[in-house]
Amino acid sequence: MLQRTLLILLLGTALTATAVTVQAAEPVPPARAAMPPELRMLLGGLVSENDVSLLFAHLRAAMAATAEGRQPPPFPEALGKRLEAAGSELQMRGLIAGMVLTQFVERAVRDAVRELAPPPTSRDGY
Questions:
Q1: pLDDT tens digits for range 110-124
Q2: Global confidence as pTM
């Protein structure tokens, strides 16, 4: 359960960070781009670079196994222990990130619906 939550969190955060970047008026070079506040709030102090390396190595191995019709490898024990230790805090932060993501998606869908709506018609024939 915690592993799925982490994957959803990371994907949601990545999508949120991408959306924030897309909305920027002027692109900022990646080397000078500041970390999005959502990502800082979600992962700050809980996840190390090594944890990220382990997670993405596992994701790549799982995708390769799935593409080849094999079972994905088990979740790395070291990463599982780290996530368990930070579990409740990560879940709370993930909930907040998920809420931010749903607000962004809702706003985008509402804007799209408004843009696609037919123009109002006049009852007087004008």
A1: 999 999 988 877 765
A2: 0.43
| Cβ–Cβ under 8 Å, residues 2 and 88 | no
Instruction: Give the model confidence (pLDDT) of 67-82 as tens digits.
Output: 999 999 998 888 888 8
The gap from C-alpha 5 to its chain's centroid, in whole angstroms, comes to: 11
- The rounded distance, in Å, linking the Cα atoms of 82 and 47 is 8
Q: Give the residues of the chain that fall short of pLDDT 50.
A: 18-26, 28-29, 31-32
SS3 (DSSP) at 24: coil
- How does 38-71 read in b/e, with b if 16+ C-beta sit within 10 Å? bbeebbeeebeeebeebbeebeeebeeeeeeeee
The CA-based dihedral angle spanning residues 94, 99, 104, 107, taken in that order and rounded to the nearest 10 degrees: 170
Closest-CA residue to 96 (of 33, 26, 44):
44
* Cα 111 from chain centroid (whole Å): 21
Q: Is there a contact between 3 and 10 (Cβ–Cβ < 8 Å)?
A: no
